[in-house]
Amino acid sequence: MCGIVGYIGERNCVPILINGLKRLEYRGYDSAGISVIFDHDSTVVKNKGKVSLLENKIENLNLSARLGIGHTRWATHGAPNELNAHPHFNAEKNLYVIHNGIIENYQTIKKGLQKLGYEFITQTDSEVLPHLIDSFIKKGNSLFKSVQLALGEVEGTYGIAVIYENEPDKIIAARKGSPLVLGIGENENFVASDVSAILAHTKQIVYLEDGDIIQVYKDHFTAKTILDKEVEKEVHEITMSLDEIDKGGFPHFMLKEIMEQPESIRNSMRGRILFDEGTSKLGGLESVADALAGSKRILISACGTSWHAGLVGKYMLEQFTRIPTEVEYASEFRYRNPIIEKGDTIFFISQSGETADTLAALRESKIRGALGLGICNVVGSSIARESNAGVYTHAGPEIGVASTKAFTSQLVVLSLITLLIARKKNMSLVDGKTIAGELSLIPDKISEILKLNYEIEKIANAFKDAKNFLYLGRGYNFPVALEGALKLKEISYIHAEGYPAAEMKHGPIALIDEKMPVVFIAPKDSTYEKIISNIQEVRARGGRIIAVASEKDNDIDKLVDYTIKIPDTIRMLMPLLTVIPLQLLAYHIAVKKGLNVDQPRNLAKSVTVE
Ligand code: G6P
Question: Last residue of a domain, which of 417, 449, 481?
Answer without folding.
Answer: 449
